[in-house]
Design a protein that fits this description.
The complex is a heterodimer. Chain A is built from 11 helices and 9 strands. Chain A is mostly helical. Chain A has a domain of 60 residues. A 3-stranded antiparallel beta sheet of chain A has the order 1-2-9. In chain A, α9 packs antiparallel against α11 and α10 runs antiparallel to α11. The longest helix of chain A has 34 residues. Chain A is globular, with a radius of gyration of 27 Å. Chain A starts with a helix and ends in a 5-residue tail after the last helix. Chain B has 2 domains: 205 residues, 3-Layer(aba) Sandwich (D-Maltodextrin-Binding Protein, domain 2); 96 residues, Periplasmic binding protein-like II (D-Maltodextrin-Binding Protein, domain 2, 3-Layer(aba) Sandwich), CATH 3.40.190. In chain B, the strands form 5 sheets. In chain B, strands 10-9-11-8-12 form a 5-stranded mixed beta sheet, sandwiched between helices. A 3-stranded parallel beta sheet of chain B has the order 4-1-5. A two-stranded antiparallel ribbon of chain B has the order 2-3. Chain B starts with a helix and ends in a 29-residue tail after the last helix. The chains are: A mainly alpha, B alpha/beta. Chains A and B meet through α1, α4 and α10 of A and α1, α4, α6 and β10 of B.
Chain lengths: 404, 338
């Protein structure tokens, strides 16, 4: 008890000392402590923007662009890492010698080499091994677009077609009419269009689940499953989707080489792809081990019992083993998600403009507000991590062993 | 365990507190070496040679200050910094001075709390493109992908230039010059932009420099110079006047070859004051009387430094241009040593 009190007092003293030190040193340097720099003009450009941003926007806006970029790569990374991890973890237990060893090589290779090296390696390979946009030019070009001339793989990223609408809810602009050329509608995509599509899709999924429950009830009551349940479920998801796409006049915006670069379509920059893959492969290797441990924690008797009931191996895995393994898997999986999110701050190595590069990099550098910037950055990662672990804990509570 | 960590933290914090308030000159003397921030590698300005010895134009300024303060031009710890880390390194006391192609701007001088001690290179921002692109002017760069080093003034100038000319571009942010070079040569960007001197230095290291052109437009003023922390004026004076001594030495005809001979005393009183055989300018700075002679004998005067590292006879091949002495139509003009 005494030791605890002394330790507590010492820690308080240390915090007080550090705080006073900061105040004193800032005074010495003649710097004040305020966040007004967030409202001043940023002056620099960001290549990947999920929201409107130009160099006339504020530093706060630049930080927001960075935050969204961080969240984007973390979200994509968590999904891909989970898929890779589950597949690799299950396959590592495979009785097939080659498959098992291959997965061992993957797991040991990725988790024992620093993430930064993987990020840089993947980025370098993508830059050096793919053609430049100007190689696509000319009669006998060195490179050509793939998948029916719709996708261009270049060393600046991958250009894929984008869906745009000729009758967008956000309104369309017209091209100017010239001699012999009629004014044409410029297809665009407003956020509200995609929101509508998303709402319909989510609604469709719920409706399809309701149909499924109704079919099961009918089956349990009468012994006959209503005919074409599957097609009804599919129709209720796809029907409204197809209708709204037709109403909005959806067309494909296919990238084409114009000037220095491809324009049109969606540009997935190399920096994003390299960072996403490296984070996913690296974290996936750790998740694979967690999945393997989770599966091995389920007693062998469960498998044998399932086999005795006549279940085939893959149904045994999906219906018996994995649901039980989830209880062991979820808690360490949460910390892998947190790791991935925080590791995304290595983005600057490949010039991906995440929040570390905008707020924690250029903004700090241009305004000289290291302390404020770093505090904000720390706060952002803290809040993000707490939110992720909060959400995952809710999920964990829903799958964990329920004792009645 | 917990306690030792705590004590360690306290000790580190105590040291940090001490570092800011102590005088830089005393600290450099006590350490016996100058901590000088330079680039992570830009041939001609600051780069390690085959033996790992740092050399270059900015390195020369560091060595001159070390020679003036400690009498030994090799007593320098070179700390490589990127565009993003340089100011933090200087503000935190990790380095005593920064000589890293850093542009003197109002906000860096006033708001970031630094003290620019002069200009050792008058520069401007330019663009380099592969010759096969057929671009002859920066006005033709609409839609181009541009490699830039983040945390620099070039980043801001670039945004201003494209916005004011109503052109669009795709920035590719990069940490160091070496990475920029790799990206540019791989064709991941069409254009590389930085200070014109940096472009010349970078191009000189290419396998085929003639395949790349530096466009004629210079879109900004980039006065590059060494800087120190705001507040320690004595230290600022030492760095400022060491640079001035190199510039004045060229004007007065003092070179590394004849400095020993001239230091014995000459007919010209200004040379005598500079080299310490008359008056006590060194003492006023808190240095020995032969401070300037030491600096000049170890790195040469400004002209020697320029010609030896980035001048027309080197692979980088920069002309003196604005960086000639005022007597030759340039902008170099040292205040008098009096």
């Amino acid at each position: 008890m005494t030791i605890q009190v002394v330790a507590f007092a010492l820690i308080l003293a240390a915090i007080w000392f550090l705080g006073r030190n900061i105040v004193h040193n800032l005074e010495e340097l003649g710097k004040d402590f305020n966040f007004s720099f967030l409202n001043s003009r940023a002056g620099y450009d960001i290549n990947q923007r999920l929201i409107e941003y130009s160099n006339d926007s504020t530093h706060g806006r630049a930080a927001l662009v960075g935050i969204l970029n961080t969240l984007l790569v973390a979200f994509l990374g968590c999904i891909l890492a989970t898929i890779l991890g589950v597949i690799a973890g299950v396959l590592r237990l495979s009785k097939n010698w080659i498959v098992g060893r291959l997965m061992t090589v993957y797991v040991e290779g990725f988790r024992n080499i620093p993430l930064l090296l993987w990020i840089i390696l993947i980025f370098a390979v993508m830059t050096e091994s793919t053609p430049q946009p100007r190689d696509f030019r000319g009669e006998d070009a060195e490179a050509s677009m793939i998948l029916g001339e719709s996708v261009a793989v270049t060393n600046r990223g991958i250009y894929v077609p984008n869906v745009v609408f000729t009758r967008s809810l956000g309104g369309n602009e017209m091209t100017e009419a010239a001699d012999g050329v009629e004014a044409a509608v410029i297809p665009t995509a407003a956020a509200i269009d995609w929101l509508l599509v998303l709402v319909l899709l989510v609604g469709g999924v719920f409706a399809s689940k309701a149909i499924g429950r109704w079919a099961t009830r009918t089956q349990e009551a009468t012994g006959v499953r209503p005919p074409a349940t599957f097609w009804m479920q599919l129709g209720v998801i796809l029907g409204p989707f197809v209708v709204v796409m037709l109403v909005l006049g959806a067309t494909l915006d296919i990238p084409e080489l114009r000037g220095f670069n491809f324009s049109g379509g969606i540009h997935m920059r190399n920096s994003l792809i390299a960072l996403w893959f490296a984070l996913s492969l690296y974290t996936g290797a750790f998740i694979a081990e967690i999945v393997r441990a989770g599966i091995m924690a389920v007693s062998k008797g469960q498998t044998e019992a399932a086999f005795a009931l006549g279940l085939r191996p893959n149904r045994t895995m999906n219906l018996v083993i994995l649901p039980q393994a989830m209880r062991v898997i979820i808690p360490p999986l949460i910390s892998q998600y947190l790791n991935l999110t925080k590791n995304s701050s290595l983005a600057i190595a490949v010039g991906y403009m995440d929040v570390r590069s905008t707020l924690g990099g250029i903004t700090i550098n241009q305004t000289g507000r290291e302390l404020e910037g770093m505090l904000l950055l720390g706060l952002f990662y803290l809040v993000t991590s707490l939110v992720i672990s909060g959400v995952m804990n809710i999920y964990n509570n829903s799958v964990k062993l329920k004792e009645r | 365990m917990k306690k030792s960590v705590l004590l360690g933290t306290l000790a580190v914090a105590g040291l940090a507190a001490g570092a800011v308030s102590a005088q830089t000159l005393d600290e450099v003397r006590a350490r016996g070496a100058l901590n000088c921030g330079v680039t992570t590698g830009l041939v001609g300005f600051a780069a390690p040679d085959a033996n790992g010895e740092w050399e270059g134009f900015d390195v020369g300024v560091c060595r001159a200050v070390a020679a003036a303060v400690l009498g030994d031009s090799t007593a320098v710890n070179f700390v490589p910094t990127t565009g993003q880390t340089r100011f933090t390194a200087l503000a935190s006391g990790e380095i005593d001075m920064l000589a890293r192609n850093t542009t003197w701007t109002f906000s860096r001088d006033v708001d970031l709390r630094f003290e620019f001690t002069g200009i050792n290179y008058y520069d401007g921002q330019g663009f380099m493109v592969p010759r096969e692109l057929g671009v002859s002017s920066a006005m033709e760069l609409d839609g181009a992908t541009v490699c830039i080093q983040t945390g620099t003034t070039t980043e801001l100038n670039l945004a201003d230039f494209f916005a004011s000319n109503n052109m669009s571009y795709e920035p590719v942010p990069i940490e160091t010059n070496a990475e920029a070079q790799q990206q540019y040569l791989a064709g991941a960007c069409d254009v590389y932009t930085t200070d014109a001197s940096g472009l010349a230095a970078t191009r000189a290291t290419f396998e085929d420099p003639s395949a790349h052109v530096v466009l004629p437009e210079i879109i900004s003023k980039e006065p590059l110079g060494p800087l120190v922390r705001h507040g320690d004026n004595e230290w600022g004076d030492i760095v400022r006047w060491t640079l001035n001594a190199l510039i004045a030495a060229e004007e007065l005809g003092v070179t590394s070859a004849n400095v020993a001979e001239l230091a014995a005393g000459t007919e010209n009183p200004e040379i005598n004051r500079l080299l310490g055989s008359e008056g006590d300018l060194g003492g006023m700075l808190g240095l020995s009387s032969d401070w300037a002679a030491n600096a000049i004998s170890s790195v040469g005067n400004y002209g020697e430094l320029f010609e030896g590292n980035i001048g027309e006879n080197t692979p980088i091949g920069l002309a003196r241009g604005l960086n000639a002495q005022w007597t030759d139509g340039g902008l170099l003009y040292s205040p008098p040593f009096r």
